[in-house]
Structure formats: C-alpha cells, structure tokens
Amino acid sequence: MSNMFCFQCQQTAGNKACVNTGVCGKQPSTSNLQDELICELIRLAEAAELTKKSLQQKKETDPKLLSRYLNTRKSADRLLIDGLFTTLTNVNFDDKAIKDYIKEVQKNQKDIMRCMPTDICSISDIAYKNFPTTNMNFSDTNMNSSTANINPPTCGLKDPHDIPVISLWDGTDDIVSLRSTLLFGLKGMAAYAHHAMNLGYQNDNVTTWFYKGLCEVNREHSVEEWIELIMEFGKVNYQCMELLDKANTESFGTPTPTKVHTDIRKGPFIVVSGHDLRDLDLLLKQTEGTGVNVYTHCEMLPAHGYPKLAAYKHLAGNFGTAWQSQQTEFENIPAPVLFTTNCLMPPRPSYEDRIYTTSVVGYEGMVHIEGTKDGKKDFTPIIKHALKLGGYEHDHSMSGINGGHILTTGFAHGAVLSHADKLTAAIKNGDIKHIFLVGGCDGAHPGRNYYTEFVKQTPMDSLVLTLACGKYRFNDLDLGEIDGIPRILDMGQCNDSYSAIKVALALAEAFNCDINELPLTLVLSWYEQKAVCILLTLLALGVKNIYLGPTLPAFMTETVVRFLVDTYNLQPITAPEQDMDAILGRG
C-alpha cells in the first residue's frame, strides 16, 4: 500500500509518481491532506452550483435568501481559488494550515447550502447527470479507493457531505490522465486568478469556470468530452492571463526594458521570492527610508520593469538564480527571505530561521505574515530581522549561471509592440530570420542544461523571447543585438506567456498569415501546474509544433500524448543540435 500518490510535477519519482515521499520534499501526510482539500473544494463547487440550481427552480425567491447566497458564494470564490493554489507544487508544506483551510471550506459548504429553499427535500432532488456514485474515504491512508454509498438526506437536512465526490486517481489510465490534466490546469489558473484578485481584479467568466471545472472533474466523461472540456479551459485561462496582465499594468505601469544588477550592496536587505507584485509593493512601501534594500529572486525579477515598482530606489537588484538553487544560494544568507508564492523548498538549518511566508505559502515552523480581510500586511517582523542581521559587510559579488552580472527584463508586449514596425521590417528584410520562444519553469532535472545549449546555438539572425524562471539558464548571456534589438528579450513571469501570444498574434496579423506560418518556434520547459495551464492555452489557440521538455508529463498516458502529437505535432525535446536542425530545416 502506498503512502501517497502525486504525479503533478515534472520531477515526480521515476517520471511515474511519488508514492512514499515527494521529490519536492512534500510528506505523505501533506500530500493526502492536499488531496482531501481538493475533494472538499469539489464539494464546495458542487454545493454552490446545487444551491444556485435550487434557487433558479423557484419561481419566487426570498430576496434575503438570495442575498445571503451571493455573499456566501463571494467567499467561496476566494476559497476555491486560494485552495487550488495551496495544492500547487512547492507552495504549502504546513499540515496545520491545510487542515485549518479544510475546516474553513467545510464551513462555507454548510453556509452556502443553508441558502437552499426549505422545500427542497434532498440533494438528489436537484442532482446533475453523471454524478459519481461513490465517495472518497479520507480515513483510508491509501487515498485511492472508492467507498461509501450515498444516502440522500431527509427533507430539510442538506449535508454537504452527502454530495458524492469521485476518487481522483481511480479509473482507466486515459480517464485519470485527462481528469488530472484538467485539474492541474485549474491549479495553475488559480495562481493567476489569485494574483489578479489581490489587486482587485476579477473576470466573471474565469471565476465561474472554477466552479464548472471542479464539477466537471467530478463527472464521468468520454475521452472526446474530456478533450473538449480541456480545450475550453485553455481558452478561459487565456482570459485569466489577460486579466492578470491588465491588473499588473494598470496597477504598476507598462513594463519597460530595464537592466538589473546581480551584485548585492553592503548593508541590510530582504530577498523577495515568488510572483506576487502586490506583496512586493507593500514591502517596498514599508521599507522605504529604513536603510533596508530589497532584492527580487527568481520569478520576481520582472518586477524591475514596472515603472511604479522601479521608482523605489531601494529596489536594488536581483539575488541569485532560479528557485531550485535556493538551498545553495541562501546558505548562511545574512538577510531574511520572503516567499509570496511558490517555489519554496524545505529550508536548510543554516537559514531556516530567516524564511518568512505569506498568503497561501506555508511551512511548519516558519514565520507567516498574515493579511487582513482588506489585504493589508504588516512586514515589521521581517524588516526588524533584516536590520538585526545587517546584510553583507562589504559589497557582495554574485552572478548568473553563465557568469554574467547584468540581466535585462521588461520586454512585455507593450514594449515589444511599441517597436512593431521595426520588428516586422527586420523580418521582411531578412535581418531576423527566426524567432524562438525559449522559456517556462526551471528545475533540478539534469537534462535542463539543454535550454542553455539550445540558446547558445541559435543563429545570429534570430531572436530569443523568454519568460518565467527557465530563462535563468541563459538570461545572463550576451548574444548581441539585431538593428538595436537585443537578441534575448525577457517578457516577464510565466503568466506573461500572454505577452508572447499577443506579440505572435500581432505578427501574424502584420504578415497576414496563421500563427503557425510565422518563423516562430516555441521550445518550452515545464515543472509545475502553471506550465500545464499555459500549454493547454497554447493548444486551445491552435499553436502547433511546440517542443516540450525536459520530459513529457507523467500524468499524460501514451494515448493522450499520441493525440497531442497527431493533432498539434507536439514534440518532446531531444538534443539541442538535432532539434535546431529540424526547426531550421538543416541537413
């Protein structure tokens, strides 16, 4: 009997599944609690939809009841989004925090079902078709068996736990694969919706799809129906990335190309990791005038391109490289580190007392900065800690993976398309013969040096667009320029895949062609579930000929992979030289 089951990330054991402990450091108890949380989120989505359906069936609805439902559902919106994000790889390792979240979800389930009209006798009166007939038994440590027949409640007793929930990992291989693909995509989209919501932005269609998606995960579908759902999801995730792009740019300005130093100044400082620009902004406000410098880490690097964030003079540079190097780079660091989102690794003793978490991030024993209901946070503890530690006594030299000390970021769609005429002219003139998008998640897999070598081998008459933390494999390289355009263009965080899509669509329009007819090739690396939702968006938009690595997802069966290869010509990476020859038609 296995202790856990998890195959959602690229580094899953043997490229099959983690069954004893997570390669990410996640313990079986945490993994099983995260599965339990997912099932309770499914139950919450079902409860909300069942209650809505019951209210719609009534010709006359008590306005107070309807108002109570809408308010309770608003709380459910946040619970679904943050709950899904909590289960994303390298986000939360804190069992107590997850148990507390489960209790909060269960309370909301009951609150929302109390809004059901009193003359609805049982859940079975309004059940959906294809409802699962079995419930998951959370006392079973295997977490993989289906148990318990569903007994409908008596009239007036509408218990959310009478809502059946499918056993997530049970079923034929192909069905589990497709169900998992949609679920993991939802987890990725939840991260983007979370960041947008923190800035006060929501899209009703996106929010509604979290309910739909979780309910559909809880249904039985044919392979064709699953694929249709997954493609529909991909288009909704595009809307979510568009929403976050709007939230970020309207809050902090349109990114502009910016050079960022990797060396660390002497004196006290704080390192900020993750993706949440609002948390960074709050910290910058509170550290202003304190003598504490702030450095971005990993996916926070693109923050330097946003004018309102760059205006803080003590936003001093970028610390280190991608997330998987943190246990080495944070060794004996004389400063605290704030994790606003993933990717957190189990901290080592030399710096574990300096790790702070906030929002959905959690690790037992670490100091957690809570936020108020209106989003305010007090970072005084971490600021005091930075002053106490004092930072480096002298300026401290650090570099990128390839030895570079200057990184450039800020080439989002606003910056690139402001020079669209120059770019299209360079392509028409033959000065730019090919554009590569090389980006995605980084990780510790040994095959990931492929991306460094691939970029080094790109022809001098080509551009390399990049984004997410995979760029650290090569973003400190100097590949020169083409007519004043840097050959490496950092478009931002993983969610800024939206920028890459915008640029590609604009070029397709300029050349009056299909996006797949452009001299453009996507060479992507993946690690966690945000990469999954981005891939599904690209496929839903009809993008073909994508190269994906360092391995194909363990949760995708041969049948699913074959469908992606046959329909979209999805290619697993091989060797840099071989793939480059195939892309450019050489040899």
TrEMBL record:
Residues annotated for hybrid [4Fe-2O-2S] cluster binding in this entry: 275, 299, 343, 441, 469, 494, 528, 530
Keyword Repeat: no
This protein's UniProt keywords: 4Fe-4S, Cytoplasm, Iron, Iron-sulfur, Metal-binding, Oxidoreductase
Catalyzed reaction equations: A + NH4(+) + H2O = hydroxylamine + AH2 + H(+)
Cofactor comment text: Binds 1 hybrid [4Fe-2O-2S] cluster.
Subcellular localization(s) per the UniProt record: Cytoplasm
Name of one Pfam family that matches: Prismane
Entry EC number(s): 1.7.99.1
GO molecular function: hydroxylamine reductase activity
Binding-site positions, [4Fe-4S] cluster: 6, 9, 18, 24
Modified residues (Cysteine persulfide): 441
Main enzyme class: oxidoreductase
Names of required cofactors: hybrid [4Fe-2O-2S] cluster; [4Fe-4S] cluster
Superkingdom of the source species: Bacteria
Job of this protein: Catalyzes the reduction of hydroxylamine to form NH(3) and H(2)O.
Matching HAMAP family: Hydroxylam_reduct
Similarity field: Belongs to the HCP family.
Protein name stated in the entry: Hydroxylamine reductase
Natural source organism: Coprococcus ammoniilyticus
Name of the encoding gene: hcp
